[in-house]
Structure formats: C-alpha cells, structure tokens
Amino acid sequence: MGDRCWLRIRVRKEDMKIWNKIFGDLSNCLDETEEETDKTLTGVCYEANYGWTTELTDAAVRGCVFEGESAAGDGYGPSTFAGFDGDFFVVDTGHDGGYVVALDEDTISIPPAEKERLRKSIRGIAAARKALNKLEKQK
Predict the structure, then answer these.
(1) Integer Cα distance of 39 and 13 in angstroms
(2) Is the dihedral of CA 82, 70, 98, 41 positive or negative?
C-alpha cells in the first residue's frame, strides 16, 4: 500500500486504449464519473496511489491529452496537472487554490530554472484545458 490521495481527471476518449493499457481498465480505477461527453470523460479516484504520477507521466509520453488535480498525500501537497504534446506538466497548488512557488531562501526570489519550469508547466496545463474544452464543443 502506497501513499494515496483524491484525484480528478478529464481525458480524451480517443486515448482510452492507451489508458486501458496503463491501468488495465481506466473506468475500473475511477470511483465516480463526474461528466461524460461524446469526446471526453471526467472522473474521480478517491485513492490514487502516489497521485498516479507514474501512470500520468506514461500516458503523457504516449501522447494522451488530459488535465486534472489531486489532493495532498502524506509526502506531497495538492497539485494541478496535465498531459499535452507528449509532456507531463504538474504545478503544486495551495489547499485553497493558486500556485505554490519555491523561493530561494537567500534571495527570496524564484530560481531561474524553477521560473522556467513553472512557466512551461502553466502554459502546458492551459493548452491541455483549451484542447479538451474545444473537443467538448465539437459535434
């Protein structure tokens, strides 16, 4: 038994073969379906092992488009995440929303590498959301 947390995810249905290879059957891993359209599925897992980080990274590398958020586990805080264009993006969030940023203790500033990672991740998450929203509007 690992570190488990609550997780909500929205995926493209066209990627279900990949999700099912990763999970055996994604729908069996979701405790609840929040919304389902012809093109997307949004569901919740109440006990996602380590926030499904390994599985989400695998899905992103395989080209799946998805977005979601997870609550804190024992060893990590809440986050928002997405898979888009072959990359997995994740940004820590506060318990009430908003992004959490690590500051350099000496300079009280965001280190340049962290600033670039955040910029790329926030843009990647926004691109995944935009792509999924556009897909949901298609007939």
Answers:
(1) 5
(2) positive
113-131 pLDDT, tens digit per residue, is 999 999 999 999 999 999 9
Non-local CB neighbours of 35 within 8 Å, separated by 6+ positions: 10, 41, 42
Does the pTM of the predicted model rise above 0.85?
yes
Token pair for residue 50? 């380590």
In this prediction, residue 18 carries a pLDDT of 97
Residue bearing tokens 């599925």:
41
Question: CA 37 → CA 13, 60, 67, 95, 103, distances in Å?
Answer: 9, 21, 15, 29, 41
* Six-digit token string for 69: 């958020």
Per-residue model confidence as pLDDT tens digits over 77-87: 899 999 999 99
Residue pair 81/67 in contact (Cβ under 8 Å)? The answer is yes
Q: How far apart are the first and last CA of the chain?
A: 42
Encoding tokens for residue 109?
Answer: 């500033």
Neighbouring CB atoms inside 10 A of 117's CB total: 16
Give, as one character, the DSSP assignment of residue 109: B
What is the H or E stretch that residue 34 is in?
A: strand 32-36
